[in-house]
Amino acid sequence: MDITRRRLLILLPAAAVAWKYVQAGTPEVSPNYKMTEHWWGMLIDIPKCIGCGSCVRACSEENDVPDGYFRTWIERYHVSDWKIERPEVESPDGGKQGFPPNEISDGKNFFVPKLCNHCADSPCTQVCPVGATFVSPDGVVLVDKNYCLGCRYCVQACPYGCRFINPKTNTAEKCSLCYHRITKGLTTACCEVCPTGARQLSDLKNPKDPIHEFLRTHNVQVLKPHMATGAKVFYNGMDGSVR
Amino acid sequence: MFKDIEHLIRLAVVIAILLAVFVLLRAAVVPKSFGEYGHYRGTAIAEIAARTPAFAGHDVCEACHTDVVDQKRLGRHANVPCEACHGAQGKHADDPSSVKPQLPDTAVICARCHEANSAKPKGFPQVVSADHSGGLACNTCHKPHRPKIEDEKETKAANTKPAGGKK
């Protein structure tokens, strides 16, 4: 086919329009969800946690987490009166099947559910060399698994040990705060199944969220505050021995 | 002015070609949405949000199973969400007629929460299941949606007249 000047003048704009459609990518799935109107976090009420492992099972089912890896897990602490600095911590299979009876009855015993703290100043996103992990505009730390190289920098950088390399995909994986659920108006899988309400998804930008009242009236901490990560998982009634 | 200016022109052309190759390659390789919100692919957010939830949420369950909601409301399990025991039921919620959920095994599922453990909160009802039931399934005596047995006795006593004997 001969390309005349006239033909070229018609073809060029057509190609430009087509290219725009090619590059537009996937359309927004939740049209009513505005990222700028949310700032997600979570509240964990330690005195309510019974260590049943429902959250761990729900998370692995919802997010297809491989066996032996955890996006959320439960730790059982045993703090004896004379070893406050050195608590005994165990988490058999992440607490997925609950915990065996505790033989030791002295000192303090309690459960601590753990997950990604969705830090506002997250150390893990800062070390990513390719921009595969990031804090979304609504405050959720996410991994772009199609962009991740699997270099493991972020796994080392997370001070809370919340990341792992998925052995199937060889990319970094972590709690996404069930981003596919919260953008559809649902709560996270772990919060959905928690039988005692020990976990509550919180929207810090929503003035009607009960989190604000709770934070004002309770002694709430975050994990490793000295690291200034801007963690947004708030723990109520947490013992000073928790790391 | 310059004696051998063609050397410089050749160099400039090579640099210009390399620069053009770099700009074209970069445009081809870097995704369009990179940098839309920050140093990452903007469309990744929509891709992550596009997945289908596995857990339907108790609001969806309660829309159909109103009889269970009425039972639960009367007992201590009022605020226990459905999928805490029944597992992910998103598929059942999407297609209730063809996807039928399995009933959970009460001997396993009840013990996860109620087996005695010194780390559990003191006020939480706990039993040593070996002593309490001797391995019997919990639903032999308890109704999982409304577990307190006294409730049923009271309602039964209210419904049936006492057949003589001691008051």
List the defining traits of the structure above.
heterodimer; A: 243 residues; alpha+beta; Alpha-Beta Plaits; 4-stranded mixed β-sheet; 3-stranded antiparallel β-sheet; 7 helices; elongated; B: 167 residues; mainly alpha; 2 domains; 9 helices; 49% helix; 0% strand; disordered C terminus
How would you describe this structure to a colleague?
Chain A contains 7 helices and 11 strands. Helix content of chain A is 22%, strand content 19%. The radius of gyration of chain A is 22 Å and the shape is elongated. Chain A has a domain at 46-116 and 188-236: Alpha-Beta Plaits. Chain A is α+β, with helices and mostly antiparallel strands and 243 residues long. Chain B is mainly alpha-helical and 167 residues long. Chain B folds into 2 domains: 10-49, no CATH class; 58-159, no CATH class. Chain B contains 9 helices and no strands. Chain B has helices at 5-29, 43-49, 58-64, 66-73, 82-86, 90-94, 106-114, 129-132, 149-159. At the A-B interface, helix 2, strand 2, strand 4, strand 5 and helix 5 of A face helix 2 and helix 7 of B.
